[in-house]
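INTERNAL TRANSFER SHEET
From: sequence group
To: structure group
Subject: DNA-(apurinic or apyrimidinic site) lyase

Please process the attached sequence and return the structure record in the designated field. Keep the field labels unchanged so the import script can parse them.
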Amino acid sequence: MPEGPEIRRAADRIEKQLTKGIIDDAWFAFDELKEYPPKLIGQQVERVETRGKAMLVRFSDQHVLYSHNQLYGVWKCHMADKEPATRRSLRARLVVNGRAASLYSASDISMWPADRLEEHPFLARLGPDLLSQSVGEEHIAQRLKEPPFYRRGLGGLLLDQGFVAGLGNYLRSEVLFFAGLSPRQRPCDLSEEERRRLAHYILALTRQAYRTAGVTNCPEWVDKAKSRGESRRQWRFSVFEREGLPCHRCATSIEKVNIASRRLYFCSHCQSLSV
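Return from structure group:
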């Protein structure tokens, strides 16, 4: 499933597609949304935001289209007179100046008044979004000390969208590796310096993945991995999906475990699992 950086990049494409004119056409598959297409004609898309893995399309009439791709949903940008090559089921379409953004296969779609959006049951549970909201390292470090998170194992906490929104499985492994921490450790086990370092990499690697289309590895390690003939699936990461391959830093073989029912990759030399 795409993580926060991939959803934010998709939001950027949709925003570019739809914010340069008024809405010419709109269509929704679900009966509860059928009243909205006539209301949206002539309105504008003001911006497209993300909250973790949810997408928010804000209209000039102060309505917001909420969607969550879940496992199979995908947005496609295309010319309105040319259907994308897909067998997926169309769920929603917005057209501006002959350019369309179409949502396929998603089932979690709803329309909300902007001033009630935070009442959405999913959004109400989310922590701050690292790419669409103003979030600093100090804010993340402080959240690590809050009661709901302070005694949670890092391996599970970093997947909890209530802590910060947008972190997913590959970012979890990458953050812990660069922070030099065990997934078994808890925020309460860490020094102030370790919490600050963890907060730094949570933010820095999420932003790096956004800028680089999912590459979280160091440039010099990427070059060395490419010279060894590694595929993009392997060289783009420091540890994720690198089981059995050498650690970029110390050459120890990368290992894999399951924590919080998800696979996690780590270096036993750079990160201790004994805690």
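Handover comment: The mean pLDDT is 94. The chain has two domains: 4-125, 137-267.
Transfer complete.
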